[in-house]
Amino acid sequence: MRTLIIANWKCNPQTLAEAESLFGSIRKGVKNIKNVETVICPPFVYLFNLKKAIDNLKLGAQDCFWEKAGAFTGEISPTMLKDLGCRYVILSHSEREKYFSETDEMTNKKIKAAILAKLDPIFCIGETEKEKERGETQNVLKKQIEKGLKGISEKEMENIILAYEPVWAIGTGNPCQPKDVRKITFLIRKIVSKIYSNKTSNNLKILYGGSVNSENVKDYLVKNSVNGFIIGGASLNSKEFIKIIKEIN
Ligand code: PGA
Fold it and tell me: Does position 1 have pLDDT exceeding 90, yes or no?
């Protein structure tokens, strides 16, 4: 199974020229990479142009709306993303909850809509620093998984990727330690196996995100741990991002 690397550019860069340049450098840098699938998730507005230059990279979006079409000012439907060449969509990133008050119920609707449009949802879960301090991590993840996946069939689970992104590790330079990430992947599989079959839980792809860089990335790829990463800050620097990919190729 190839390791999955998702570049989450968030609200960067500020011009199309910069986006194309960054995309081009990454594409060149990963030309001979065989064991890593690299997915770039730029802001929506760059998708159209980047699709033309896609080559060995894949495209994803950072969010989508749950309705197909209609009077929803400012929203982007999963069908539009599919049409622009997206294969993946990041959903329920903690910044969506923090700044846009997204709830588990909204995430659930978005996951279902993404699957209907044949996008692979990357469903982010993770506890805040306070929740971690209070020893609530397990309960928080359980609630997020149960609510986010409500009504999703065993078959549909084949296309869902889970991403463990502890809020306290995102953009802080304070990553969750590899041994703790490994424990969390066990926990996630256990929670999922209570809802679905063991096969579905074992086959589930789990990513880690939160202050991953070229120095620490390799430490996470131990047996029975994660299948890939979401990279935020470090994906905006082509040299560093290519280094990360080469480390794990
Ligand atoms: P980071 O962000 O790599 O900058 O910590 C990860 C994310 O938010 O997905």
Answer: no
